[in-house]
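Dock succinic acid; give full complex structure.
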Amino acid sequence: MSPAKTKRNRAGQFAVPGLKALLGGMSPKQFFAEYWHKKPLMIRNAVPHLEEVLDGAGLKALACREEAEGRLVRHVRDNWRVERGPFEPARLAALPKKDWSLLVSGVNLMVPEGDALLNAFNFVPYARLDDLMVSFAPPGGGVGPHFDAYDVFLIQGLGRRRWEISAQDDLELVDDCPLRILKRFRVDQSWKLEPGDMLYLPPQYAHNGVALTDCMTWSIGFRTPTAQEMATQFLVYLQDRIELDGVYADPDLGHSRHPGRIPDAMASRLKDMIRRIDWRDADMDDFLGRYLSEPKPHVFFDPPARPLGAAAFRHRLAARGVRLDARTLMLYRGRACFINGERVEAGRAAASTLRRLADHRALPPGDYDDEMAELLHDWYRDGYLAPA
Ligand code: SIN
Ligand code: CO
């Protein structure tokens, strides 16, 4: 599958790298066998020219947007402070010359090149890709030694950063700190990253990035649901769908001498009711498709202000094809297809086109049948996709 295409920026230099360049000439097979979840990997010049897509001022502007998930981390006299966005421009203009870092998550939803870059990592399933976070730090800035629960690709945009990493098992954190900072950090390896360089780290790998100049890091993060999250969310799903009949009855009830006590017969009948809760593998598959394709709670779609009618849309579809909006999550499992938390009911022929749309996040120009054209038109009016 080819990576998503992106518009070139004004300087005309940034282009999403192909898979070969991204992995430094290594095949995905080799990467998964030797590095994924196993050991760090440094790839020089994997994603060049990101510094031309976004600079510090650009990131500050994003951090002031209503929908931005921003954090400002400051290291003041051995104390870590964290402020959460969206920020007032005056707040970001008043920052000192060093020792802070501004981090914005979900940049893939705000910058087209960011969306294209995130999707270039589609050698990992979309259901595992989380988001693109971009940080800016002046010299000395960083978020301290820490570890993440997920794998991460740290790409150097603007400037230079020293990354120190450690395979240590000691993951004890500093108490009463607004950031997850390691109590002890023993450096095993260190690299100076130049623009375009990329460092892959497995989950739980201790790391510390310190800006050597004005510096921007683009982090590709992955989704790692916890067992607790899966179980509680599945129970929420089940709660909305469960249908059990029957009402409690006790025709055999006798005189109660201890009315405060829950009678054994009553407890046993009620437990039998609960034991009738049942689910099948297909219910879990349906839940997974809906849950994993559900956009984050702060994500809203922008339906077109003056949408094309069905005939005009079909014309455009035939001439240009369609592309999924950056916010859309589309996944499938078997013949079942899911888009933004909804299950799509479609016939066998439509299912293969939908799988193609989910894999490529786009459909080429073509003469699609009535069912598909109608479905795509509905999603276009919801803001889920647009003519390419
Ligand atoms: C940063 O961009 O400063 C932090 C990225 C990370 O450590 O995951
Ligand atoms: Co990290």
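Observed: The radius of gyration is 25 Å.
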